[in-house]
Amino acid sequence: MFETFTYNDPNVLPQLARNHWAFMETNSASAVMKAVCPTEWSEIVEVLSTYRLDPKFWLKAGGNRGDIAEQIDSEFYKRGWRETRLDIETRGILFARDNCKIGELPTIKQEGYLVDNFKNRIVLDVEWNAKDGNLDRDLASYRSWFEAGIISAGVIITKDRLSLLRLARRIWNEYQAKRPKQARTSKLPIDLKTSTVTAFDKAQMRVRRGVMGACPVLIVAANESTWNGQPYV
Predict the structure, then answer these.
(1) pTM above 0.90?
(2) Alpha-carbon distance 148 to 222, whole Å?
(3) Closest CA to 171 of 53, 52, 21, 55
(4) Rounded to an integer, what distance in angstroms lies between the CA atom of residue 211 and that of residue 138?
(5) Strand, coil or helix: what is 104?
(6) CB of 153 within 8 A of CB of 219?
């Protein structure tokens, strides 16, 4: 696993985006995307520069997708990205020494899965609160598609669970302090303690195992700095 840090270069990722999310990348993913898919990279930068967590949407129960994933997906949808299934077909074509075609082997089909966002040669999944096994599927698929020459890089947007747990407690305690004593509760409206869902540390662990092979991969995680500064209401 070749971990790189091209996202720290302000010429690749402007500070407005860099300062509000946590990052991990392999094989110079950020610089690769900027170089080979500049339009798509600029759209990723736009979303990271402008999207912020709003407590009224974030601090609420919401299954494995929920408001946050839908909001992030909608930002990419507005920019022309689409939910897409990537399938691969491999053909073996036989030629004689004189370059004359003499036959074909049966076509091998490899069915993919619906990625959350796809445009040009970039795959981007928003893994906000799904089972962490989704990360194995994502990274293994990115590797397969990259090796087949279909994509140039993969991106996963997730959350830094422990960082957001600290933030959630802070915001929630401030909200509870304003409520009547008999109505107060310390129980958060969302579960950030469960360690079996998609999160930054889970993605980092799999990337360090090399699940994605040589595919350039960028992991982006929302943290305390992604908060929009508004209270819970």
Answers:
(1) yes
(2) 31
(3) 55
(4) 9
(5) strand
(6) no
Based on its alpha-carbon atoms, the radius of gyration of the chain, rounded to whole angstroms, reads 21
**Cα–Cα distance, 17 to 153 (Å, whole number):** 19
Residue type, 104: E
**4 DSSP β-pair partners:** 25
pLDDT tens-place string over residues 175-230: 999 999 889 999 998 888 888 889 999 999 999 999 999 999 999 999 999 999 99
Q: How many angstroms separate the Cα of 102 from the Cα of each of 9, 11, 95, 99? A: 52, 52, 5, 9
Task: At 122, give phi and psi (nearest 5°).
Answer: -120, 130
Reported residue count of the chain is: 233
Task: Give the helix ranges, DSSP H, for the chain.
Answer: 15-18, 29-36, 38-50, 55-58, 66-77, 133-147, 161-177, 200-208
Residue carrying structure tokens 């082997």: 105
Residue 21 CA, distance from chain mean position: 12
CB 32 within 8 A of CB 17: no
Find out whether 43 and 77 touch, Cβ atoms under 8 Å.
no
